[in-house]
Amino acid sequence: MIVGNGLLAKAFRSKFENVQAVTIFASGVSNSSEIREAEFRRERTLLQDTIDRNKGSIVYFSTCSVSDADRQSTPYVKHKMAAERLIGTQTGGIVFRLPQVVGRTDNPYTLTNFLARKILRNEPFTIWDKAIRTLIDVDDVALIGTALIERGSIGKTIDLCPPFSLTMLELVKIMELVLARPGRYKMVARGGGSHSDASRTSQIAAELGIDFSHDYVERVLRKYYGEHY
What we know:
By secondary structure, the protein is α/β, with parallel strands linked by helices. The protein has 8 helices and 11 strands. The chain has one domain (about 1-229): Rossmann fold.
């Protein structure tokens, strides 16, 4: 069963839409900068209702930012950590902690949509020079996540991410290359990043033939942003 209709929900739908033994909870707050309590309360209520009706495994998508000291005190990360604890009380609970997920979506709050929009519109933006980010293709999230579910990851919390990160400046440079346009940005001395354990994800990715080599981010960005998407 799928709860939600966004990027992650669509990626898992073909496999789990009609599977009653597994609930994919993919209806959460989509803006990591969100501060409105009403938005977090909406997800908490829906999650609790889903848990109350659930009779099998339930998969929740959290964030790798729970290990980012720069973000741990934000309302979004605190909300995700509370949801992780709730899922942890469930016999069939599974938590996937995700980095920045890249896919075809109209959501303006995703990091890559933000960067692409700023560059294409020639609008100024700011880069945190100490910030590091990790990106993963939503299709790879679905492939790896499905394999982990099918192999019995019940009761586990797993960092579902590639084994490398890149600086924000490196990411912007790749986006400029993909869009064939320069960005108008300035650097500020700020930022950090999460430190995830990608060992399980890397193992499954290798078995599935997913290539996490050095040009992975460029390939993913070209897939969704090539030819100005």
